[in-house]
Design a protein that fits this description.
2 domains; four-stranded parallel beta sheet; 13 helices; Rossmann fold
């Protein structure tokens, strides 16, 4: 299968190792990976802020970029949900609606794609450490992703998975939310990080680097030794 990667802005700019890890895993599984270099922002920031015309002008580029893709795999539940769930809403009553629907049907978040499309729950990974998992809001609530990353982690040799009490609680990032409401965002982040610390985990893992940016910032501020890693970074390791 030829898989086209959709790499969100923040992954491209701050966490390129996440995209590299995805390529390693998919190629290990025998698939051809394509990275369209003209891809850009999915348009979610403007969409969430209510600037739908501006969001459409950005999102149209994604429609064209992935028009002929066999399947599109996203490194983010958040941006993946934008393309899979919200593009048909964004392009309703426009000439691009059918194109948006077509892209939505062939777009998948990474763990969802591995488990539910490829039928893979063991990618041959080895990772030593105690791990807890954070459910990003869009992946959980818009895409219904819950068991998939946990199935993948449970088959990683050497890894101990422990659940935190606030696994489904928002980390407080929410993109522009953290900018507009910093005090509320910080309070939510403190609750999340407190729950992580209680597990005594060495690592906090998620399928959204944006959440991990927020969480790691608080953990660093609190001088906690816990590291944050994207799911793909864990699954890419074999020794």
């Amino acid at each position: 299968m030829k898989i086209s990667l959709f790499i969100p802005c923040f992954v491209n700019l701050f966490y390129p190792q996440v995209g590299i890890s995805m390529v390693k895993i998919l190629e290990r599984l025998g698939h051809e990976v394509d990275y369209p270099e003209n891809q850009t922002c999915c348009g979610q920031p403007a969409f969430n802020a209510g600037y739908w015309d501006e969001s459409r002008s950005v999102a149209e580029k994604s429609l064209e970029t992935f028009r002929d893709a066999e399947v599109v795999v996203s490194a983010s539940g958040s941006c993946g949900a934008m393309m899979k769930v919200f593009y048909p809403e964004l392009f309703a009553n426009t000439p691009q609606l059918e194109q948006a629907k077509n892209l939505a049907t062939k777009t998948f978040e990474f763990s969802d794609f591995l488990v539910n499309q490829l039928g893979v729950t063991d990618v041959g990974a080895r990772f030593e450490g105690k791990v807890t998992f954070h459910d990003g809001c869009h992946g959980l609530r818009e895409l219904g992703i819950k068991k998939e990353p946990r199935l993948l982690l449970s088959n990683v040799k050497g890894l101990e998975l422990v659940e935190m009490g606030e696994a489904e609680t928002c980390c407080g990032f929410g993109g522009l939310f953290a900018v507009k409401f910093p005090s509320i965002s910080t309070a939510m982040d403190e609750v999340k990080c407190g729950s992580i610390v209680e597990t005594k985990a060495d690592y906090v893992v998620s399928n959204d680097s944006s959440c991990l940016m927020q969480i790691q910032g608080m953990l660093d501020q609190q001088k906690r030794p816990i590291r944050s890693l994207h799911l793909a970074e864990v699954l890419a390791q074999t020794s």
